[in-house]
Design goal:
6-stranded antiparallel beta sheet; 17 strands; elongated; alpha+beta; about 35% helix; 2 domains; about 350 residues; Tumour Suppressor Smad4
Length: about 350
């Protein structure tokens, strides 16, 4: 489904182009006057799709905007390309309405094509939006687009694929896959997710011997799971201690050492109650870039980036990118960032 509302006069569109030029010279820039291309997944979150489309029409009245709505039978890839084409055609700002997975997928397009992106959080956890001070209220988030500023935010990258919240390999990747199977069968409830996690831990027996190349030093680590974290809220919720370097050109690495199933179940409980920092099986450290090689078994490693699983060939590099992705933030958030 594609909806267009092109009521913007040519002079206003030119103002949008000038605003974009100013963005290249400053950390943030007003977005007033630029068209919006909304990309929304009808199956994401708890929002009623038709109600959301009505809210867009109300808030964006008189402002040029276009809507790409993805329904269950649609091709996601085709709709994503359709949205990208509209953004490029109208020199617009892409506005993604969805959860972290949808935002991450479209962020890769935004980085590749170098256009800014707005966010309307529709997900269950909305870690990316919350970490960057974006409103979780739909009406407020829509209004913030009209008065917002464009500023760069940090992303992570592995093998040319960018992630906004985290990238994981090993046990955590398997947890994600099993959780989706359980939820598809029994429903999307927190209790189901917990039981799925416990079931995965009880049957999981794989470990990796990884080589971390950090600067001039090399370290062999045996692990059942590794996470590269790009989200302070997620680190806080997991109970892992971190320093202020994360998000300032640094990612945070979290390594889980192998242990008995009894110990793994204890770790699962600590994760639920956010006490991982109290366990000796956890190693955590900040890094700018990290080369990872697999020293035992085949070269293929499944890596989950923001919930999407990719099969990568080792060795590969995990790194932070400070300013490749540019998003629209509320004016108050932009002012706070400039003061810091």
């Amino acid at each position: 489904m594609t909806v267009s509302n092109s009521q913007l006069q040519p002079s206003a569109a030119n103002d949008g182009i000038q605003a974009d030029g100013a963005a290249a010279k400053a950390m943030s820039a007003e977005v007033s006057g630029r068209p919006f291309v909304f990309f929304t997944n009808a199956s994401s979150g708890n929002q009623d799709t038709e109600q959301f489309l009505e809210k867009i029409a109300t808030v964006m009245e008189g402002h040029e905007h276009h809507i790409i709505c993805v329904y269950p039978d649609d091709s996601h890839e085709q709709k994503q390309q359709e949205a990208v084409s509209l953004v490029k055609k109208h020199n617009a700002i892409l506005v993604v309405a969805g959860g972290d997975g949808t935002i991450s997928a479209m962020a890769n397009h935004a980085i590749a094509e170098q256009f800014p992106m707005g966010i309307i959080p529709f997900g269950t956890f909305n870690m990316f939006a919350r970490d960057h001070g974006l409103s979780l209220d739909t009406d407020t988030a829509l209004r913030d687009l009209l008065t917002g500023h464009i500023q760069p935010v940090q992303t992570g990258e592995i093998g040319g694929v960018h992630f906004i919240v985290n990238a994981t390999l090993g046990l955590y990747s398997q947890l994600l896959a099993d959780r989706e199977q359980w939820k598809n069968q029994f429903g999307r409830r927190r209790g189901i997710a917990i039981f799925a996690a416990l079931s995965t831990i009880m049957k999981y027996g794989r470990s990796y011997i990884l080589q971390f190349n950090k600067g001039e030093g090399r370290q062999l680590v045996k692990t059942v799971s590794f996470m590269a974290c790009n989200n302070t809220l997620q680190a806080q919720q997991a109970g892992v201690q971190y320093d202020q370097t994360m998000g300032d050109g640094y990612l945070y690495g979290i390594v889980l050492k192998p242990s008995s199933r009894k110990r793994m179940l204890l770790l699962a409980l600590k994760l639920i109650f956010r006490r991982l920092d109290q366990d000796r099986q956890i190693i955590s450290f900040p890094f700018e870039a990290l080369d990872i090689d697999k020293k035992k078994g085949g070269r293929s490693i499944e890596v989950a980036m923001d919930g999407e699983v990719h099969s990568l060939q080792a060795p590969f590099t995990v790194k932070a990118n400070r300013d490749l992705l540019k998003i629209v933030v509320p004016a108050s958030v932009a002012q706070h960032s400039e003061q810091e």
